[in-house]
Amino acid sequence: MSQNKYTKEFKMQVVQEYLNGVGSCTFIANKYGIGRQLVNHWVRFYQVHGEKYFDPKQERFTGKFKLKVVKYVLETGTSYTQAAHKFSVRAPSSIGTWVKIFLEYGEAELVNENNLTRRNRRKLRIKKQFIKDRTKRELIDEINRLQAENAYLKKLQTLILNQD
């Protein structure tokens, strides 16, 4: 979810209603037509970071920090949301993106401060797929050539045996 989709005042209202015992996360989520997990996320972050968590802010993380978070997630099996709470990352989906970059492109690309934009990652993925497909075509051609050669040699062997 976009950090700016809901106003700071709205988020504070939702959190305060939950903390004041107006209802459960599910009740409040249904009341406002938002996800229960989102309400829970706001409450948990508010309890750790206070009201400043809801201030609009563009976060920038170093490659080393991203790598640390990714390795933690992969080694412990922690969910992105749990890792976001532990490492104070506002958007758990960011961690998902980091994991995807790490698994698809490797550590070097994740640590690279100027890492691939979404558009360039897409181009690289298409290029990799083309290379992979070309390799498949080459292998199929090789198999067909070897099968034809095998069939030729079998016929030749049969002809030689029939001559005797």
Name the descriptors.
164 residues, 74% helix, 0% strand, elongated, Arc Repressor Mutant, subunit A, 3 domains
Question: Describe it for me?
Answer:
The protein is mostly helical. It folds into three domains: 57 residues, Orthogonal Bundle (Arc Repressor Mutant, subunit A), CATH 1.10.10; 57 residues; 46 residues. The chain has eight helices and no strands. Helix 1 packs across helix 3. It is elongated and about 100 Å long. The chain starts with 7 loop residues before the first helix and ends with a helix. The mean pLDDT is 83.
CATH class of the largest domain equals: Mainly Alpha
The profile of the biggest β sheet is: none
Overall, the morphology is: elongated
Instruction: Count every helix, treating DSSP H or I runs of 4 or more residues as helices.
Output: 8
Order of helices and strands: HHHHHHHH
Radius of gyration: 28 Å
CATH topology of the largest domain: Arc Repressor Mutant, subunit A
Counting DSSP E segments of at least 2 residues, the number of strands comes to: 0
In the predicted model, the low-confidence regions spanning at least 5 consecutive residues are none
Helix percent reads: over 70%
Distance between the termini: 80 Å
Structural class: mainly alpha
Count of individual domains: 3
Report the average pLDDT across residues. 83
Level-2 CATH architecture of the largest domain: Orthogonal Bundle
- As a percent range, the share of strand residues is under 5%
